[in-house]
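pls design
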């Protein structure tokens, strides 16, 4: 049980990969207001945060703290949908920041390692940002607007997320790796761009810590220590599952990706550690347990029993 005296916590994007992990973590510990968008889920309030009338509905609700997870997370989508990306990832956080400040609510805003160019890792909170794609630009603009609208807010930057996938909540990074390994067909996986996979439950733990420590403001990095390319990620999955991975080949680039990626945007977790917060664990430590919980996903994708 945690010492949470924040009152009612509103979680935007609560139907998504990270938001649903945060809901799971806070269930029973806090009074929750869960927001979804396209998914009409029981107990959730479905809103389009890009729509002014829907934001008025959100404003009318009683909430004392806000964890803002909703966003366009796909760099490739954002690269070709600049206006939608900037509306949801930049303008909306600014509006929510204004609402939070007006009611004196704690705000935790989720941002990304993609605000950095990825050339000089590990990045500290004060290092200069220079995004290489529209997703990163829109998220950086979101950070700026939150900081202006709600100076006490905490802006939590995180890296690539994974969790146990379900029918309703996909986990693209893990599913792509599992599919590459289990399909058994020759497949190429990028071996150029380094990522530091973060278990969503670890990020939920950091959010919980920040709700209990409203004095922590400004930018905060929650990074893990182990870097993998998509190719190394697939090999790691195969090793843990005891699968043959000779069909998985390293590729130098991925022509299917429209948006450029930072080559290595690793985040330094020094500030989080100094604050006594829960630093996310490396993916090789967390993956065995996560994979052991993927049997439903494997069965529903026809992978049961394959090695
Ligand atoms: N995934 C990663 O690897 C990663 C890495 C770094 C940072 N992040 C950041 O982490 C946050 C959460 O990412 P995620 O992976 O959990 O994303 P996700 O699974 O794609 O979830 C996105 C959430 O946003 C909601 N949403 C979409 N459009 C909306 C709108 N117009 N109004 C209100 N809600 C809307 C969705 O609701 P419905 O599903 O109901 O439509 C969903 O709950 C994002 O800010 C992302 O930038 C993610």
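designed seq:
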């Amino acid at each position: 049980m945690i010492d949470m005296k924040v009152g009612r916590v509103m979680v935007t994007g609560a139907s998504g990969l990270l938001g649903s992990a945060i809901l799971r973590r806070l269930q029973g510990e806090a009074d929750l207001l869960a927001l979804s968008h396209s998914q009409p889920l029981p107990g959730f309030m479905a809103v389009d945060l890009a729509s002014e009338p829907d934001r008025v509905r959100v404003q009318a609700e009683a909430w004392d703290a806000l964890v803002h997870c909703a966003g366009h997370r796909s760099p490739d989508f954002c690269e070709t949908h600049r206006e939608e990306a900037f509306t949801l990832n930049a303008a909306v956080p600014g509006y929510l920041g204004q609402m939070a400040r007006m009611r004196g609510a704690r705000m935790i805003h989720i941002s990304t390692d993609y605000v950095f160019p990825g050339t000089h890792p590990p990045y500290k909170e004060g290092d200069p940002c220079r995004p290489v794609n529209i997703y990163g630009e829109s998220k950086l603009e979101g950070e700026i607007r939150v900081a202006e609208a709600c100076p006490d807010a905490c802006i939590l930057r995180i890296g690539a997320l994974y969790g146990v996938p379900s029918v309703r909540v996909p986990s693209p990074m893990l599913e792509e790796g599992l599919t590459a390994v289990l399909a058994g067909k020759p497949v190429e996986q990028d071996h150029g761009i380094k990522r530091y996979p973060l278990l969503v439950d670890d990020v939920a733990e950091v959010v919980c810590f920040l709700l209990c420590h409203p004095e922590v403001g400004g930018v905060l990095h929650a990074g893990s220590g182990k870097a993998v390319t998509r190719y190394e990620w697939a090999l790691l999955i195969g090793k843990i599952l005891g699968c043959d991975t000779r069909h998985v080949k390293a590729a130098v680039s991925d022509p299917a990706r429209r948006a450029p990626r930072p080559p290595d945007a690793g985040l330094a977790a020094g500030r989080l550690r100094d604050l006594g917060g829960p630093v996310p664990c490396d993916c090789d430590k967390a993956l065995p347990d996560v994979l052991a919980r993927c049997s439903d996903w494997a069965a529903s994708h026809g992978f049961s029993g394959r090695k």
